[in-house]
Please model this.
Amino acid sequence: MKKDLFGLREEEYRQIKETLQREPNDTELGLFGVMWSEHCCYKSTKRLLAMFPTKGRYVFQGPGENAGIVDIGSGIGIAFKMESHNHPSAVEPVQGAATGVGGIIRDVIAMGARPIASMDCLFFGPPDDRRSNYLREGIIKGVGSYGNCVGVPTVGGLTYYDPCYTGNPLVNAMCAGLVRLDGVVKSDTSKPGHVLVLLGSKTGRDGIAGAAFASAELDEAVKKSKPQVQMGDPFAEKLLIECCLEILDKGLIVSMQDMGAAGITSSAVELAAKAHAGAELYLDNVPLREEGMNPFEIALSESQERMLLVIEERHYGDVKKIADKWGLECANIGRLIEQDRFVLYFKGQVAADVPASMLASGPTIDWPKREPAQRVIHYPTKPQTNIDGKDPMSVAKALSELPQFEDKSWIYEQYDHMVQTRTTLGPGNSVAIIYVKEIDRLIALSAASDPWRCAIDPMIGGMETVAKAVRKLAIAGAYPLGMTDCLNFPSPEVPENFWTMSEVIRGMALACQELDCPIVSGNVSLYNESPQGAILPSPVVCAVGYFDDKKFLKSNEPNVSDKLFLVGSGGSLRASAFERTFEGRLSGPLEPLDFDAERDFCSRARKTALEAAASSGKCVGLGGVAMAIIKMLRQSNLGAAIKSFDVEFLFGEGCPRALYAVPEEKTDKFLEIWDGFKVTELGSVIKDGTLRFV
Amino acid sequence: MKVSVIVFPGSNCDLDVKWAFEVCCNADVSMVWHTEKWLPESDVVVLPGGFSYGDYLRSGAMAAKSPIMGSVVEFAGKGGLVLGICNGFQILTEAHLLPGVLLPNVSTKFICRPCKIRIEQIDTPFTFLYKQGEVVNFPIAHHEGLFYLDDTSLAKLEESGCVALRYVNNPNGSLNAVAGITNASKNVLGLMPHPERVVHPLVGGQDGVRFFKGINEWVKEIRR
Model:
C-alpha cells in the first residue's frame, strides 16, 4: 500500500528523510504535511509575493506578523489583514464562513489590537442555481451570526457572481483593529525559557489537518470531509478577545499567536522560528474536549477560539487568574528552548522530534508557466438577443437584473454594522468610514476585486484591482496608507494558471508601487477548483485610507437638480458586464493603465471631497457610467435625465473615472478642480425616480 | 451622575453605552462585572446590549440568574433607575422586572438598520426631553425583538401607559409594535432600539442625546 504522505510530494518526503537521516514517524510526517502545505508555507507563491512593495511612510508593520499595521497618527495604528476560508465554506457554509471571520479577528488580536471593523468579500455562483443559493444563504448567515455575537461590526465588503464559483465559493474576511503603537505585540521578543500557554477553548477533533485540506482541489470525496471543517463559537471568541486584551493591558504577554491552520503545531513553530529558537510541547497538558485523542490529532487540531501566548513563567499565576475570570481554559503546554528542535511529548514518550527551523521553512516551488493560447471566456448561457443592445434604457434594465447589481441591503441588514458606535459610513456605500473616537479621526476602508478583467488580461486586471480600491478611497476624500490582499486562484500546477497568477501579482505589485499603497499583510488561497471547474483568477484587496480632516464625500446622496458629471475618459466594452450579457463572452484587449492619470485623478478627487465641491461621488466600475448613475440614485428615490450617448460610452468599463452629482452653486468650484481633466456633463438629477435618456 | 454598566460575558454594547453617557452628560461610569454581589453607589444601572452567555439558551435567560442581578432587582425595587437596552431588555423580562418576552423576529433573520421610533410616553425619566408622539431614529440590531405578551396583560400595559416607545413600521412583528416598555412606577425601562448608537454627529446622528441628557437631568432633580 502506498504510504500516506499527508499531501507531501515524493521529493519533499525524500528531502525530509535525508535531513532527518531516518524515516519520520506518522506524527512527524503529519507535521511536515501541514507545515509544508501551500496554506502554511506559500511554497508556490513565496517568490511572487516578494514582488509586492511592503514599506512606506505609514507602514508600522509589514507582512510576516499576524497582521500588518499602518500608523494613523497620535500613537495609534490600524492592524489589519484579510484571509480566505474558501474550502471550508464550500463544504459547510455556515461554519466555514463563521470560522473564517473568527480566525481573522484572532490574527488582529494577536497584534495587541482591539478589533473594530470587519469586511467580507464573497463570491458565489448564480443565485438561481440551487446549490449556489444554499451556499450563499449559509455563508451570509455564518458571517452575520459570528460577527454580530462577537461585537465586531461588519461595515462593508463585496459580492461577486460567476458560474465559476458554483462549486467553490470564495469567502474572504478582513478585520481591522485599533492598537497603541507602543503596545504592539511582536513575535521576535520571545526567548528560550519562555512558557507557552494555551488560552481559550478545549481542543477537539475538529478541523484536523484542515490546512492540508485547503491546499487540495475540492473533489467529491473532499466535500464529504466535514470533520475537517471547524466549528465556531463566537461567544468563546468574545471572551477570548476581552481576556487577551486584559492580559495585555496588565503587561503579562511577551508574544501571542492565533491558532488557526495546523493549530498548536503551526502557532508554536511560527513563534519559535521568529524567536530563532526551538520548542517543546507537553501534549498531556492540552485541555481536551474528547477522549482518546492521539498526539497527531492534538498537535494538528484546528479547534477554534484558541490562542497561544508566550509569557514569562513567573506570570503564569496572574494569567491563569484572568483566564478564570473569563471562564477560559488556560494551560501551560510547553516552552521555548535553545536547541533547534520541535519536540512533542505525550504520555512520557517522545511523539515527534524534528528540527524546528526545518518545519518552519517549507520548500519553494516554481511551477512551469505558459501563457494561455487565447484569453476569451465563453459563457454557455444564451446571450440576450431579444433586447436591443443599442438602446441604453433596455441595456440598463437587462444589466440591473444581474445579481452583481442587486440591492445588497438584504445581506448587510443581517450584519450588525453599527456596534462599537464607530460606523460613520456603513455598508451600501462605496467605502466604509470608521470614526476613531479615541483620537477624533476618520479612517476609510475600501475593497476591490475584478476577476473578469484579471482573466482576460491578468497584468492589467491586477493593476486595476489595486487602482480601484485606491480610486474609491480618493473619491471619498482619503489617501491610502496600506493594503491587504487575498489571492484566490486555481491550481498552480497548471502552467496557464501559474502564468496568470504571476502576471496578476506583477500587475498588483506595480500598481501598489505606483500608487503608493504598500501591501502590509495578506493571504493566498490556491487549488480553488471543483468538479464544476476552476475559478477565475480572483485577487481581492482591502485598503485602509486616512482623512486629513473629518470631511468626506458620500456616494449616494445626490440632491434634486444636481448636475451629473463624468470625470475621466476611456473605457471600453471589452470584458464588461455588457459584453458578458449581450455577447455571452468576455474578451480583450484591455486598455493599459496610465499611472500619471491615476495619480492626477486621485488628487483631484480628494480635493473635490475636501472642498465639498459635490454632493455625491461614485467610482465608475462594473456596468460603466450608466450603472454608476443607477447605484448612486438607488437609495434616494430620485431619478436622472441623461443626454444621449452611445452604448460604449455609457456601459464601457475601465480607466480612472468617476460620476459626480454637483449642486448648481458648486459647479464653478467643481469645474475648477477638474480643469485640465476630461469632464463630460451627463445630465441632471430629477425628482421622479426614473432614469431617462433624453 | 453615577452610572453602573453591568458587564456579562458576551455583552458587546457595554462600552458604547458608557461612551454615550460620557459624551452626552459627562457621567461617572463604572463597569460592574456580573459576578459582583453588590452594586457600587449608583444613580442609574444599565444592562447593555450584546449576547450574554452567547444567548445559547433563551436570550437573557442565563444573565438574569447572574449574582449581580439580586442587587439590581433590589435597586429597582427601591425606585432606582434601571435601563435595559436590547439584550438588556431581554434580561429584564427574564428577571421579571418587566413583563413579556422577546421572540425571534417574524423574518427569522437578524435585522440591523436605522429605525423610526415614536415616543409614546414622556412622563418617564428617560423620555421627558422628547415631545409626545415625536418620531426619532434609534437603530435596531437584534434577532429576538418581537415583543410578546398575552392579550389581557398587553391591554393592561397599554392602559397603564407603560408602552414608552413604539415602532413606526414594526420591523420585527412585535405585538402592538411595542419597542420599549416601563414598569408601573416608570423607573425601569427596557427597549430593543439602541439610543446609544445615535449620540454623535459622525455616528448615525444625535437623536439619542436627549435620552441620556434626560436621565442626567432627572437624577439631578431628585438629588435636589
Summary: The radius of gyration of chain A is 25 Å. Chain A has a mean pLDDT of 93. Chain A has 24 helices and 29 strands. The first strand of chain A starts at residue 59 and ends at 61.
